[in-house]
Specification:
Layout (H helix, E strand, L loop, with lengths): L7 H12 L5 E5 L1 H7 L6 E7 L3 H10 L3 E6 L4 E8 L2 E9 L5 H6 L9 E3 L4 E3 L4 H7 L1 E2 L6 H4 L3 H12 L2 E2 L1 H10 L8 H13 L4 H9 L3 H4 L1 H4 L14 H17 L1 H4 L4 H8 L2 E3 L2 E2 H11 L9 E2 L5 E2 L3 H16 L3 H12 L3 H7 L6 H7 L3 H13 L5 H17 L8 H8 L5 H15 L6 H16 L2
Parallel strand pairs: 2-5, 8-9
Antiparallel strand pairs: 1-2, 1-6, 3-4, 4-5, 6-7, 10-11, 12-13
């Protein structure tokens, strides 16, 4: 194994080395070393100072033109952020809290994050054999108390599984199972962040399946895990829980081959999925989460007809409402909540037009508006998990291509022009008139300003006659 890091960090390590002396010990530890040893680049560096010295932080921050932020002044946790070549680097500094270095490392989560680089002499220290576990692809706790100290590490374990492809050792897996009830004591926003960090990985389906098998999923998303007991019939070939896992897997497959499946509009789709919704999380992670929970309304809506066929009438509407409870529990932002609610509420809508061969495809765009891409990708993943076909892919391409072309259309008349021509005051009516105008332009009913004025006259006349 070898170290991989940005060349600018060589200067950083040199500065820190010169700040050390016989009475001050400085250790680099954690994710940066793990990623470096795996040949990955990282911009987050964690240091232990013993004994703690704020003066060293001040000198270091000034040397790299950084800025110091307190994370927890009482516990002496500080962060320095600096920019190298237009990229932000984060340097976190904490004191040694254990009685000695070994006890300090045993308080960490997993051995792969316990490797130390002593900045004083640039020697690697690895008392818990983290490098061996890195080589063997094993995820092992630093001590039997690691999970009890912070139960969120249960979810973090699965993040490392999905991100690194490592295997959790049997003793560690048993600790995760024994401690799973403690997840209920973890703050919702921390669980929220860890769920979305798991979904940042390329392929996560099997991770969610394993979390369910170990009965860990029910501690964080009981609405999802309980779908295992909901009956099903054709066209489904399994219960709604495993259908949801399958749908997520299909999306991850679609995303991996996005450039081949949608070569003409690939960049537009990527731009949409990269849009930030909250903090570091994008529409891609939120879309994947919506696929996981898109059928949560089925538990309370299923019924069987005389022929034994199972129906879930209105599950999309109930599922959308259930998002509010999940959002409150896991502290989702309002923007995240609104995004999830819309995707789940309308995830069936494209199928109505797909089944009706003469269906007006513009109805989908006018109904879904700015989330047309997200809902069409959810629809495609959902349907592919049932019965993948070329027709589904062709239909989705048609809708997405139509949406991207039509969204560039601007109304022939602006809001101010509409108010001036018809002597109207500012009100929600102006927005509705503009929307109707754009829809008529999309359908080719209006080509110039004269036709636009006549069109709006008819609408306003109908409004007056009501």
């Amino acid at each position: 194994m070898f170290f991989k890091f940005h060349k600018d960090l060589a200067k950083v390590f040199s500065i820190l080395h010169n700040l050390c002396n016989d009475s001050i010990k400085l250790y680099l530890v954690g994710g940066f070393l793990r990623d470096s040893l795996l040949g990955r680049e990282s911009k987050d560096l964690d240091f232990i100072i013993y004994p703690f010295s704020y003066k060293i932080l001040e000198i270091f921050s000034k040397s790299i033109k950084g800025k110091i932020f307190p994370l927890d002044e009482e516990r002496k946790y500080f962060r320095i952020i600096a920019n190298f070549n237009n990229e932000n680097y984060i340097f976190d500094f904490t004191p040694q809290e254990g009685r000695d270095l070994l006890e300090e490392l045993k308080r960490r989560d997993f051995t792969i994050n316990s490797v130390l680089l002593e900045i004083n002499n640039f020697k690697i220290l690895d008392p818990l054999e983290g490098i061996k576990d890195l080589k063997e692809g094993k995820l092992r706790v630093c001590s039997e108390h690691s999970i009890v100290e912070d139960p969120l590490r249960i979810l973090r374990a699965f993040r490392f599984v999905s991100n690194l492809g490592f295997k959790i050792t049997y003793p560690t897996e048993k600790l995760l199972i024994d401690s799973k009830k403690r997840l209920k004591n973890v703050k919702g926003e921390r669980v929220h962040n860890e769920i979305l960090k798991i979904l940042k990985s390329s392929f996560t389906k099997e991770v969610w399946v394993r979390m369910h098998e170990l009965r860990i999923l029910e501690e964080i998303l009981p609405e999802l895990s309980s779908l295992e007991n909901v009956p099903w019939s054709k066209p489904h070939h399994t219960n709604p829980l495993f259908h949801s896992f399958e749908a997520l897997g299909k999306f991850e497959y679609i995303y991996y081959y996005l450039d081949r499946l949608f070569p003409e509009i690939f960049e537009n789709l990527i731009d949409y999925l990269k849009e930030e919704v909250y903090s570091e999380f994008t529409k891609k992670e939120l879309l994947k989460f919506s696929i996981l929970i898109h059928d949560i309304g089925k538990e309370k809506t299923f019924l069987s007809d005389e022929e034994g066929k199972v129906h879930y009438y209105g599950h999309e509407n109930l599922g959308s409402l259930m998002v509010e409870e999940i959002s409150e529990r896991l502290r989702f932002s309002k923007k995240e909540e609104d995004f999830l609610k819309k995707l789940i509420k309308f995830h069936l809508y494209p199928s109505f037009i797909f089944k009706d061969k003469k269906g007006n495809k513009l109805k989908i765009i006018n109904k879904l508006k700015e989330e047309t891409i997200g809902i069409m990708l959810l629809f495609l993943a959902d349907q592919f998990s049932l019965n993948p076909s070329e027709d589904l892919l062709y239909f989705s391409k048609e809708i997405l291509d139509l949406y991207l072309r039509k969204k560039e259309i601007k109304p022939i008349l602006s809001g101010n022009e509409i108010m001036r021509y018809f002597s109207l005051q500012p009100s929600p009516l102006i927005g509705k008139l503009k929307e109707s105008l754009i829809q008529a332009q999309q359908e080719g009913l209006i080509k110039d300003k004269e036709e636009a004025l006549k069109f709006l006259e008819r609408i306003l006349s109908n409004e007056d006659n009501r």
